[in-house]
Amino acid sequence: MDRRVRILIVDDHTLFREGLSRLLQADANFVVAGICASVREALIATQRGPIDVVLLDYDLNEEIGVRFLAESKKRNFTGRVLMVTSGMSDTVILRAIDEGAAGIFLKNSPLTELIQAIGRVTRGEVWIDPGVAKALITMAHQPNEANMRDILSDREQEVLRGVFEGLSNKEIGQRLKISEGSVKATLQQLFARTGVRTRSQLVRIAVEKHATDWLGPK
Q1: Do the Cβ atoms of 45 and 51 come closer than 8 Å?
Q2: What backbone torsions phi and psi does residue 141 show, to the nearest 5 degrees?
Q3: Which of 75, 99, 121, 182 shows the greatest Cβ crowding within 10 Å of its Cβ?
Q4: CATH code for 5-135?
Q5: CB-neighbour burial class of residue 111 (10 A; exposed 0-12, middle 13-18, buried 19+)
Q6: Top-ranked range on mean pLDDT: pick from 4-18, 80-94, 115-129, 164-178
Q7: Separation between Cα atoms, residue 112 and residue 182, nearest integer Å
Q8: What is the mean pLDDT of residues 52-72?
Q9: What does pTM read for this prediction?
């Protein structure tokens, strides 16, 4: 059985998408299932065969790549979407995460990090580029009085920071010197507290509603 990660590249720059395709094809862990230049082409491609990960550019010439997230849901697409972009505003980043993006990767980052990011999102984890994560954490939010009273425990805050840094449960456990099971249990507490079911949704809620009290300086 072929266990390679099946990737769809969606980018309007021919040189970039074809160059990236060649680089990924050279890795035995990946197979490029298609390359597209528009949301419409990408939606058609997802119906032709199974896709594990979509590498989606934000700026697709005259359209916004984020539209793929909502449209693909309507077509019951279950693959993961990693935004690969030169830059996105904080508002758009939040929208992408809210729509179901599994991560944000900046194009000026090394290929080795992209391979790592693909691996993470394939396993159901979140990848937030360190530069993007820092910007999100320092975003100015007006604190909500109810949220200010809803303070996380030290462990919950450390686990949440690990999620923002794109660490796996095992890596978070190693950092905090606790078991992977304890990390999972803490994540479940955070999910229950916020009413979400995925890491992506947790990141979004944490940034949008709790930036001051949950992600402020320790």
Answers
A1: yes
A2: -125, 140
A3: 121
A4: 3.40.50.2300
A5: exposed
A6: 4-18
A7: 30
A8: 87
A9: 0.67
